């Protein structure tokens, strides 16, 4: 039954049009009534064709339209492949038309997908020619385009050339800085913008998280809560990642409750992030609870749980989880095998780890990457097979990175092989000349063997080359506020009160130890 004219738009736009027969029916209804001359209805028909995969039919409709207007051109540019979209955009002037404020954003998206910066610059020039280079939609699209190619200075110049308070424009530039890793400039813009929305907050939070600055990410999230801005899935993912890095279990629990409260429990990505957060925050039981209650587990869900078990030294449980994963017919990926090899390393399962490593390509079709070789070298080194680890390093088809040499340096300390430590440090000094931890490990290896002159020489090299020992840092979450403590730093506002409490604890421990010795008859009395 043919739909009546008042319902034609609804028929085309709301899923009622679901096959080519319906497309023919709608088109056949429009033509004899002259409705195909209505650009809006024709655009809806074209969009329905593309949504169902009938792009050729859509192109035929457009081609047979006499003198299509800019609205129809924009519809086609939005829907076509990148190269076709740019080609059609270039035909607009030949049709006697001018691009409008929608043409530029649509074609610039095609430019980004095609990675065609030079074409993007030409289109930027055309926006100036048409006088639309100061339109908020066009400027925002240009900023997105330049940011996709890492052209931060171009994006900032565009932003500084206009004076809009439009939140989308500000968000676009904040995203540029966040993507480039310049979260300080992103924060500066965030603080100065005339109004903010949920995207503004999320972009800054995600930027801090990606730059491994979780304390600032959580601080911004706290402010977001105080201003009653509801987080979305992306916000929660970023904050959960920050919690995992800080080990902030209290906030993680609150986020878990918030996710349940807002009905987000069915979102796989959030459940995966919760598993990761709980595992890294020390509560492997809750990680398993979330895992077991997650429906439709994907490869990331399984891999995250396996990684969490490995992190807690539960190597056998991790391997059992992998067996369950295979039984569930979920295909592992290369990250899964990083987790498996890490589990074997923590559990000292050399033969099992070697079997998985050697069967990756043959049984699972996954070629080992440098990370897998690194895990295997770490497994052999931890277990004391230092020569085998070194031989595998020489055979691998990749250049050994700092993580691999660092692993060998650590293994050489565990098993007292100063020669391997020497070799590892020489390579690490080239790869990470400013990493004080490498020097410290080798110095400690020499000290453990009583080779004090060599230990002192390593310390001297550190001084001579200007390598400074990195200060240790720790975080603690108290009353929903994250506090950071750095060795020898007295800047905390409650430093003196904290010091007094620590001193009292020290005195109490000292007294307890004395009483214990006294009860065991170990206290010496002066004659």
From TrEMBL:
GO terms for molecular function: RNA binding. The keyword Repeat applies. PPR repeats lie at residues 166-196, 197-231, 298-332. It comes from the Eukaryota. The keyword Hydrolase does not apply. Keywords: Repeat. PROSITE patterns: PPR (PS51375). InterPro entries: E_motif, PPR_At4g14850-like_plant, PPR_rpt, TPR-like_helical_dom_sf. One of its GO terms (biological process) is RNA modification. NCBIfam families: PPR. This is Pentatricopeptide repeat-containing protein. It comes from Rhamnella rubrinervis. The lineage of its organism: Eukaryota, Viridiplantae, Streptophyta, Embryophyta, Tracheophyta.
